[in-house]
Input
Amino acid sequence: MRAWQVHELGEPADGLRLDDVEAPTASEGTVVIDVAAVGVKFPDLLQIRGGYQVKPPMPFIPGNEAAGTISAVGDGVEGFAVGDRVVSTASGSLAEAVRAPAKTVFKLPDTMSFQQAACLPTNYGTTVFALENRAKLQSGETMLVTAAAGGVGSAAIQVGKALGASVIGLAGGPEKVETVLGLGADQAFDYKEVDIVDTVRGATDGKGVDVCYEAVGGDTFDQVRRTIGWDGRLLVIGFTSGRIPDAPANHMLLKNYAILGVHWGAWLAREPDGMQQNWDRISELFGTGHIDPLIDSVRPMSEAANALMDIGSRKTVGKVIIDPTA
Output
């Protein structure tokens, strides 16, 4: 079967190759999924570059969001059968088939496509955990979202609106601003063209925001923390800008706000039922029409390396999907 493998750390164009590898077989506690759609994302790019906290031995197959059909079931697996439509968070998903531990596999609602499913586990799992478990976002509160046209940003808009929040989005360029408004944000601004602090304060009548969903880091973090209102919560999602920022403790004290880390993966490692809880909540929100993942493009298997490069250069919005059958 075909699978993308990392042979050396660096940019995808240099160390990522489309190889013929042995197809997986089901072992005890696992299933084999014939993959119909793979979601690729910024953390995949970081891992390929060697900048992610998980560093598997090389060569390795990147990716951990695969949707498809179960083709084999190993001993000891209950609740799954050949032919089931599923999504999995198993590592090594950028391939035509993946062997997945049963605990990483979740059934799809009948109305959910494979492409939609491949958008959901990481972006929406992170977001549900961030907004419901960490920030405890309440109806009527105001939330600011950075990188709002991206994968996790677009998810944050939809989940925030589902929870009854008023959402302000920041994005780069007029087209992305329109995308953010189309996702349901109440207000959206081009961070390249406005003073973030003055603009957000003005949009909230000087009160500041209750919650900030911050995925960029660097200079953006330095600015948005100044938009946090009294008793606010600043969610640290990631550092796509590359610089990990600092925050002065006196500023947190004077405004009585909290900075909350959002390490979804580590939470899942400590909460065995966490992913199932996440998936049940995501499926509920999908079923009620509150979330509809933004798909930038669906690309053939041969275009995976280029897709990852486009993600790194911020040429995409929402999620990029790879179709291993094409």
Notes: The first helix runs from residue 12 to 15. The longest strand covers residues 30-40. The radius of gyration is 20 Å.
